[in-house]
TrEMBL record:
Name of the gene encoding the protein in the UniProt record: polA
NCBIfam families, sorted: pola (TIGR00593), PRK05755.1 (NF004397)
GO biological process, one term: DNA-templated DNA replication
Keyword presence, Chaperone: no
Name of protein: DNA polymerase I
Keywords: DNA damage, DNA repair, DNA replication, DNA-binding, DNA-directed DNA polymerase, Exonuclease, Hydrolase, Nuclease, Nucleotidyltransferase, Transferase
Occurrences of domain DNA-directed DNA polymerase family A palm (ranges): 725-931
EC numbers, comma separated: 2.7.7.7
Classification lineage: Bacteria, Pseudomonadati, Pseudomonadota, Alphaproteobacteria, Acetobacterales
Function: In addition to polymerase activity, this DNA polymerase exhibits 3'-5' and 5'-3' exonuclease activity.
């Protein structure tokens, strides 16, 4: 079985691959500058990987399943490494000092399987290829070397994490030294040791000496198990004290066993006690984390045929085009080069002056300089913020901090227009002819050996790829906006100006300063070249400086894997989706608009009748006067600023809940008005006349949770379950001969809740395909499953979803139309039935208070800025955000991971489907009718297998001529 046939890491299977991912993601975060040694029990991992993975061979027939599992683990650690030092520890041989003490020690163990023997050397070769320290010493076991390094490192003030579930290593746990169980993804500290052995870590050898270990042929004392041994050691203090007083023990059999086997117990303790004074094979600093040498690592992985590991390490792609593979290779090479030759200080060089490039010779000189540098800041200047309509006006390059230029391409005379340029070319400023400049730049932008660094790369890539702008392919790339976002979502904005002030202490030239404002504003092609250069070249300079500062922090912040595997790959995926767009039936939209207008007019008549007179329903001021001045309704609140009555949705919903029909009708009118203006009139204006499609723009770094947002137009807020929302979705259609396919994660946030809180009942319900809300109702209301009616299920559904958002008893009371006391009783019953959920919520709030952020299940750090606010309302809101962020963020992470995999999977299967939209937990595709079934099956397989949770993921797939039919 080759690697291609092996299950992917992250699929829902209890393999060594899942252990590897869990190990890497569960390692505690190390603050920058702190010392943290991670010791991986390599020998234990080899056997676990060998037995967990199916047989695999490399191209020459050599077995490599254990090697593959091992390299998966190492690549995860290096891509998302949280420590300052890392070593893999191996057994050097079967003969150790323990063999001299007791020849029968481990003598019964069989020889390793023949298929595993050739893999031992390959695994050591893998460790060397990854640039990771390898620790082993003749005469000592791996556990002894782990003990020795842990002692030396912790005594020097560092933190140690031992990646292993081996019970023999638990004796090493103490302040500054913990273990990490790679299977259960949980740390092992003193409490876990006491739970397993009944005694603290320093007494574990005494308990093991009494109980023995048949696996290793440690004799122990016959008839005494772990529980009895723990009781005896707790009572007598230690093994030697117990043996000295063994004759006084009242139980005859126990007394005889201890007296008769005292020497065996003493020998057993020597066998199980790890030698913390074993000589070190290398100094501590030799274990410092360093990047692998790209050529050496690439060669090793290529020989083994491990293409997915090549992709993870940025050295290739398991599936993808040559440009993507080149991008990853160049980034890895630059990262390695940075470790050898530190980048210049981004803040030590003045900003400008910059050069304006108006001749081909000068441009070629800059291209040569960029090629030699191997990394270049890149920015575009255009005449529109809409990437799919913007004309390329100029290109900026930066080769080092303070060293940047601007290449004008389509500038006209200041104050002129494009028409002026065509009519009087001599009026335009001197610049290189557009086609000549593009052809000169094309090889540089496609050069696999030169990394192109951009800010908000998706925009520039869309502009440059369009034929009218040169049809340029840009690769490999890095994006400073997404680097920042991967580390600090929710902490601050990620626009270039804000990042520049935050990290460089420099405020860039404002756009308004060069283009003007209001009626005096001009498009960038009319800006004089001196001003254009000062503004545009600075953008490329700032972007490159930010890259030098932020890129190295990705590893320190534990965000490297998130950026490399998800955020950067999403750039190309979203670019293609935006270019594709989705077809909208303008005729159907017009019909919907007419219907909405008729219904609004009818509602206006009802509202006027209820009010007793005509007024402008769309005027909050007039509505407030009607409700609170004329009708004298209770609950009105005036604004301190304007003195007008408040009539927002909260006010109207309170009135409607109190039986005020007028308020309910106004809410209905407002809903229709919003839908008509945003999704009927707005969509009509957004239809591209050339292809009849709407091309929304996905914002990648706007939310605090990692979710995408959609603008121009916003397609993510169309109501899902209302009749009006379905009508609007009816206008989104497929091209002739095609259908739209919707693939929607089912109850993904509830599944994440069951996973994160580890609630057995919910896990069972999801695993067996039960109705989760009916199961919850049965549990919290103490009902038999057949006794759960619609009302009980409705209440359970409300709290199931509300709990993810930190809903209070007051909020639940409002949702269910019950009193606060009854709502509190329901919440108490819920937490009483599922105590793990309350524990998880309290843990998240505490993490946010202590750290200022929480994590998703996949390692994304989500900042909660107001968690320490003095204002109680702001602080309570932050606590709700801390509870909700891991669920929203986790769901966003899952669908993003699916999105980066689906296009390659479709291409590999020879399917023609195009991914068009992402709406929270749903993906929408346009699919040839004949391929609908095969595409649906493949998309479901990828989406359900993209991560491994404690509960299965489920995806609902539907197809139809319109989005409404498919949903």
């Amino acid at each position: 079985m080759t690697e291609e046939a092996a299950p992917e890491a992250g699929r829902p299977r209890g393999t060594a691959l899942a252990e590897a991912a869990a190990s890497a993601e569960a390692v505690p975060v190390t603050p920058p500058g702190a010392r943290h040694l991670i010791l991986v029990d390599g020998s234990g991992y080899i056997f676990r990987a060998f037995h967990a993975l199916p047989p695999m061979t490399r191209p020459d027939g050599t077995p490599v399943n254990a090697v593959f599992g091992f390299t998966q683990m190492l690549s995860r650690f290096l891509m998302d490494h949280r420590g300052s030092h890392l070593a893999v520890v191996f057994d050097a041989g079967r003969v150790t000092f323990r063999s001299d003490l007791y020849p029968e020690y481990k003598a019964q163990r069989p020889e390793p399987p023949p298929e595993l023997v050739p893999q031992f050397a390959l695994i050591r070769e893998a460790t060397e290829a990854f640039g990771v320290a390898c620790v082993e010493r003749q005469g000592y076991e791996a556990d002894d070397m782990i003990a020795a390094y842990a002692k030396h490192f912790s005594e020097a003030g560092g933190e140690v994490t031992i990646v292993s579930s081996d019970k023999d290593l638990m004796q090493l746990v103490r302040p500054g030294v913990q273990m990490l169980d790679p299977i259960k993804q949980k740390p092992i500290r003193e409490a876990e040791v006491v739970e397993k052995f009944g005694v603290p870590p320093d007494k574990v050898p005494d308990v093991q000496a009494l109980a023995g270990d048949p696996t290793d042929n440690v004799p122990g004392v016959p008839g005494i198990g772990i529980k009895t041994a723990a009781q005896l050691i707790t009572e007598y203090g230690d093994l030697e004290s117990l043996l000295e007083k063994a004759a006084q023990i009242k139980q005859p059999k126990r007394r005889e066993a201890l007296v008769g086997n005292a020497e065996k117990a003493r020998i057993s303790k020597k066998l199980v006690t790890l030698d913390e004074n074993a000589p070190l094979t290398a100094p501590i600093e030799a274990l410092a984390v360093k990047p692998p040498e790209p050529a050496m690592l690439r060669k090793f992985l290529e020989v083994q045929g491990f293409r997915s590991v090549l992709a993870r390490m940025g050295l290739g792609e398991a599936a993808g085009d040559a440009g993507t593979r080149a991008r990853n290779s160049a980034v890895a090479a630059h990262a390695a080069a940075q470790a050898v030759a530190p980048a210049p200080d981004p803040g030590s060089t003045p900003f400008g002056p910059y050069e304006t490039i108006t001749s081909l010779d000068a441009l070629r000189a800059w291209i040569a300089e960029a090629t030699a540098a191997g990394v270049v800041g890149l920015d575009t200047e255009t005449d529109s913020l809409n990437a799919l309509r913007a004309r390329l006006v100029g290109i900026c390059l930066a080769t080092a901090p303070g060293r940047a230029c601007y290449v004008p391409l389509r500038h006209v005379a200041a104050g002129g227009s494009q028409g002026d340029m065509l009519a009087a070319p001599e009026a335009a400023p001197e610049q290189i002819p557009f086609d000549a400049a593009i052809e000169a730049l094309r090889p540089l932008l496609a050069d696999a050996s030169v990394l192109k660094v951009l800010q908000n790369a998706k925009y520039d890539l869309e502009v440059l790829c369009r034929p009218e702008n040169g049809g340029l392919d840009v690769a490999p790339i890095d994006d400073t906006m997404m680097i920042s976002y991967a580390m600090e979502a929710g902490r601050h904005g990620h626009g270039m100006d804000e990042l520049s002030v935050l990290h460089l202490g420099h405020k860039p030239v404002p756009y308004d300063e060069v283009t003007g404002t209001g009626r005096a504003r001009v498009t960038f092609d009319r800006v004089p070249l001196d001003k254009a250069t000062a503004y545009a070249a600075e953008d490329a300079d700032v972007t490159l400086r930010l890259w030098h500062l932020l890129r190295p922090r990705l590893r320190e912040e534990g965000a490297l894997a998130l950026y490399e595997q998800v955020e950067r790959r999403m750039i190309g995926v979203l670019r293609d989706m935006e270019i594709a767009g989705i077809k909208v039936d303008g005729v159907e939209l017009a019909r919907i608009g007419e219907d909405f207008a008729r219904r609004m007019a009818a509602l206006e008549g009802e509202i006027h009748g209820l009010a007793g007179r005509s007024f402008n329903v769309g005027s909050p001021k007039q509505l407030g006067e009607i409700l609170f001045d004329e009708l004298k309704l209770p609950g009105g609140r005036k604004s301190k600023a304007s003195g007008a009555w408040g009539t927002d949705v909260t006010v109207l919903e309170e009135l409607a809940a109190g039986g005020v029909d007028l308020a309910r009708r106004v809410l209905d009118w407002r809903q229709l008005s919003k839908l008509k203006s945003t999704y009927v009139d707005g969509l009509q204006a957004a239809i591209d006349p050339q292809d009849g499609r709407v091309h929304t723009s996905f914002s990648m770094a706007n939310t605090s949770t990692g979710r995408l947002s959609s603008t121009e137009p916003n397609l993510q807020n169309i109501p899902i379950r209302t009749e009006e929302g379905q009508r609007i979705r009816q206008a989104f259609v497929a091209e002739p001969g095609h259908v739209l396919l919707s693939a929607d994660y089912s109850q993904i946030e509830l599944r994440l809740l069951a996973h994160l809180a580890d609630v057995p009942a919910l896990r069972e319900a999801f695993a067996t395909g039960q109705d989760i809300h009916a199961r919850t109702a049965a549990d919290i209301f103490r009902l038999a499953p057949e006794a759960v009616d619609r009302e009980a299920r409705r209440r359970a559904k409300t709290i199931n979803f509300g709990i993810i958002y930190g809903m209070s008893a007051f909020g639940l009371a409002g949702r269910l139309g019950i009193g606060p006391a009854e709502a509190r009783g329901i919440i108490d019953a819920y937490f009483g039935q599922y105590p793990g959920i309350r524990d998880a919520m309290e843990r998240l709030k505490e993490e946010a208070r202590l750290q200022g952020y929480v994590f998703t299940s996949f390692g994304r750090k989500l900042w909660i800025p107001d968690i320490g606010a003095k204002d109680m309302m702001r602080r309570a809101g932050a606590e709700r955000a801390a509870i909700n962020a891991p669920f929203q963020g986790g769901a966003a992470e899952i669908i993003k991971r699916a999105m980066v995999r689906v296009p390659g999977a479709l291409k590999a299967a020879g399917l023609q489907a195009r991914m068009l939209l992402q709406v929270h937990d749903e993906l929408v595709f346009e699919v040839p009718e004949a391929e609908a079934e095969a595409t649906g099956a493949l998309v479901r397989e990828v989406m359900e297998g993209v991560v491994a949770l404690r509960v299965p993921l489920a995806v609902e797939v539907g197809t139809g001529r319109s989005w409404a039919e498919a949903h």
